[in-house]
Protein backbone atom coordinates (compact mmCIF):
# COMPACT_ATOMS: atom_id res chain seq x y z
CA UNK A 1 0.00 0.00 0.00
CA UNK A 2 1.32 3.43 -0.91
CA UNK A 3 2.03 6.02 1.74
CA UNK A 4 0.08 9.20 1.19
CA UNK A 5 0.78 12.69 2.37
CA UNK A 6 -2.09 15.11 2.81
CA UNK A 7 -1.53 18.86 2.76
CA UNK A 8 -4.32 21.09 3.97
CA UNK A 9 -4.21 24.86 3.63
CA UNK A 10 -6.37 26.73 6.08
CA UNK A 11 -7.84 30.24 5.82
CA UNK A 12 -6.55 31.18 9.29
CA UNK A 13 -3.91 29.71 11.61
CA UNK A 14 -4.87 26.48 13.32
CA UNK A 15 -5.71 26.84 16.98
CA UNK A 16 -2.94 25.50 19.22
CA UNK A 17 -5.38 23.45 21.31
CA UNK A 18 -6.77 21.83 18.16
CA UNK A 19 -3.29 21.08 16.85
CA UNK A 20 -2.53 19.30 20.13
CA UNK A 21 -5.69 17.19 19.70
CA UNK A 22 -4.80 16.35 16.09
CA UNK A 23 -1.29 15.30 17.11
CA UNK A 24 -2.71 12.90 19.71
CA UNK A 25 -5.10 11.33 17.17
CA UNK A 26 -2.86 11.14 14.10
CA UNK A 27 0.79 10.25 13.58
CA UNK A 28 3.25 12.34 11.56
CA UNK A 29 1.62 15.77 11.76
CA UNK A 30 3.54 18.92 10.89
CA UNK A 31 2.83 22.61 10.37
CA UNK A 32 5.61 23.91 8.12
CA UNK A 33 4.16 27.37 7.48
CA UNK A 34 5.32 29.97 10.00
CA UNK A 35 1.80 31.37 10.25
CA UNK A 36 0.18 27.99 11.03
CA UNK A 37 -2.03 27.86 7.95
CA UNK A 38 -0.60 24.65 6.46
CA UNK A 39 -1.15 21.24 8.01
CA UNK A 40 0.61 18.14 6.68
CA UNK A 41 -0.43 14.67 7.82
CA UNK A 42 1.06 11.37 6.65
CA UNK A 43 -0.29 7.85 6.41
CA UNK A 44 -4.05 8.32 6.76
CA UNK A 45 -6.74 5.98 5.53
CA UNK A 46 -10.02 7.28 4.12
CA UNK A 47 -11.84 7.18 7.47
CA UNK A 48 -9.02 9.15 9.11
CA UNK A 49 -9.12 11.80 6.37
CA UNK A 50 -12.83 12.23 6.95
CA UNK A 51 -12.33 12.43 10.73
CA UNK A 52 -9.61 15.08 10.31
CA UNK A 53 -11.73 17.21 7.99
CA UNK A 54 -14.74 16.92 10.29
CA UNK A 55 -12.62 17.93 13.27
CA UNK A 56 -11.40 21.02 11.42
CA UNK A 57 -14.88 21.99 10.21
CA UNK A 58 -16.47 21.40 13.63
CA UNK A 59 -13.98 23.85 15.15
CA UNK A 60 -14.70 26.54 12.52
CA UNK A 61 -11.46 26.11 10.58
CA UNK A 62 -11.97 26.82 6.89
CA UNK A 63 -10.06 24.45 4.61
CA UNK A 64 -8.97 26.41 1.53
CA UNK A 65 -7.32 23.49 -0.27
CA UNK A 66 -6.72 19.80 0.25
CA UNK A 67 -4.11 17.86 -1.68
CA UNK A 68 -3.05 14.23 -1.55
CA UNK A 69 0.32 13.13 -2.82
CA UNK A 70 1.48 9.57 -3.16
CA UNK A 71 5.02 9.18 -1.79
CA UNK A 72 5.64 5.65 -3.09
CA UNK A 73 7.59 5.17 -6.24
CA UNK A 74 5.54 3.62 -8.98
CA UNK A 75 7.17 1.35 -11.48
CA UNK A 76 5.52 0.96 -14.88
CA UNK A 77 3.67 -2.24 -15.54
CA UNK A 78 5.59 -4.61 -17.86
CA UNK A 79 2.44 -4.94 -19.96
CA UNK A 80 2.37 -1.22 -20.77
CA UNK A 81 4.93 -0.87 -23.55
Written overview of the protein:
The chain is of the alpha+beta class. It has a single domain, classed as Alpha-Beta Plaits. It contains two helices and four strands. It has helices at 16-25, 46-58, and strands at residues 4-10, 29-30, 38-42, 63-70. The protein starts with a strand and ends in an 11-residue tail after the last strand.
SSE pattern: EHEEHE
CATH overall fold name: Alpha-Beta Plaits
Q: What value does the average pLDDT take?
A: 84
Cα distance spanning the termini:
24 Å
Number of strands: 4
Percent of residues in beta strands?
Answer: 25-35%
Major sheet: arrangement of strands:
2-3-1-4
Shape: globular
Keywords:
single chain; 4-stranded antiparallel sheet; disordered C terminus; 81 residues; alpha+beta; globular; Alpha-Beta Plaits
Secondary structure: elements and pairs:
Layout lengths: L3 E7 L5 H10 L3 E2 L7 E5 L3 H13 L4 E8 L11
Antiparallel strand pairs: 1-3, 1-4, 2-3
Brief account:
This protein is an alpha+beta fold and 81 residues long. The chain has two helices and four strands, in the order βαββαβ. The protein has a four-stranded antiparallel β-sheet with strand order 2-3-1-4, with helices on one face.
